[in-house]
Amino acid sequence: MCLTDKELSPVDYEHTCMIRGDGGRALRRILDQICNKWTLLVVATLDQGTLRFTDLHHQIPGISQRMLTLTLRNLERDGLITRTVHAEVPPRVEYALTATGKSLIPPALSLAKWAITHAPGIEAAREAHTQKN
Amino acid sequence: MCLTDKELSPVDYEHTCMIRGDGGRALRRILDQICNKWTLLVVATLDQGTLRFTDLHHQIPGISQRMLTLTLRNLERDGLITRTVHAEVPPRVEYALTATGKSLIPPALSLAKWAITHAPGIEAAREAHTQKN
DNA sequence: CAGGATCCCGTTAGATACTG
DNA sequence: CAGTATCTAACGGGATCCTG
Questions:
Q1: What is the pLDDT, as a whole number, of residue A133?
Q2: Does residue B72 contact residue B81 with C-beta atoms inside 8 Å?
Q3: Whether B122 and A79 lie within 8 Å, measured CB to CB
Q4: Which of A11, A24, B13, B53 is deepest in the core (most CB within 10 A)?
């Protein structure tokens, strides 16, 4: 793919093709799943180790029970976390990252670093721009 | 922040705090802006260099004029791209990444690599899971 | 405790038509 | 060429109430 591109340095070539791929469809399928409001936060929180539903609910301020449930179900379906139900009363359900889930931490971290580094500049640009109008 | 956490290895400590931060709010403000359907793709495409509106429209299959316009306006507002209008007939408008915009490529690339690497496994887990129901 | 079921609303984004 | 305007459907996500 991208073999007909010309006048690109090798590094640009690699960049462009890696992200754009088949028009970006394959990438977007995964990214749409990861980049919603809560997924990255849940994964990051589970980086601590095994946690129960209520633990997660307390450690992620602002999330509703509904969204926590949905997010956990999706992560389980995609094989990023495990869900273990203990046959007790009251019930106890524990969530933990799988190997795939853990492998998401470093890339997520690099994005987080970028966001935190550039947040002030972006906010400034945003305000300067809205001032003009 | 996170200074009261205990029994975390230094690396886990760093991971958790970087991403979770103030409950993830600062991170999400930026991420919400980056992780929509088209932004990353537009930035990646502009990594080639300066491009015109129509060039982008052709190189990003599936994007509508409307969404391309909106995405470009947001990127310009946040200082990630420049928009140069040439006073000609017919009009010519050129878009290019700023330094901030270029700095987004490496983190985006690391996420892209993760997505591409784990896409097969995720798809498989997803199908295996839906088979069960 | 760990959700499931509903209702409701704002935002996102696609389609289409029009313009300086 | 490079947009703008308008309408609409779809989806994400919050609030609330209920349950094994």
A1: 63
A2: yes
A3: yes
A4: A24
Which residues between 69 and 88 in chain A have a beta carbon less than 8 angstroms from any beta carbon of chain B?
Answer: 76-80
Q: Evaluate whether B61 touches B104 at the Cβ level (below 8 Å).
A: no
Nucleotide nearest to A65 (CA to C1'): C3
Sequential DSSP letters for A25-78: HHHHHHHHHHSSSSHHHHHHHHTTS-EEHHHHHHHSTT--HHHHHHHHHHHHHT
Q: Is the pLDDT of residue B4 over 50?
A: no
pTM of the model: 0.86
Task: Say which CATH topology domain B37-132 has.
Answer: Arc Repressor Mutant, subunit A (1.10.10)
SS3 A6: coil
Q: Where are chain A's structural domains? A: 1-34, 37-132
Q: Which chain B residue shows the shortest CA-CA distance from A8?
A: B48
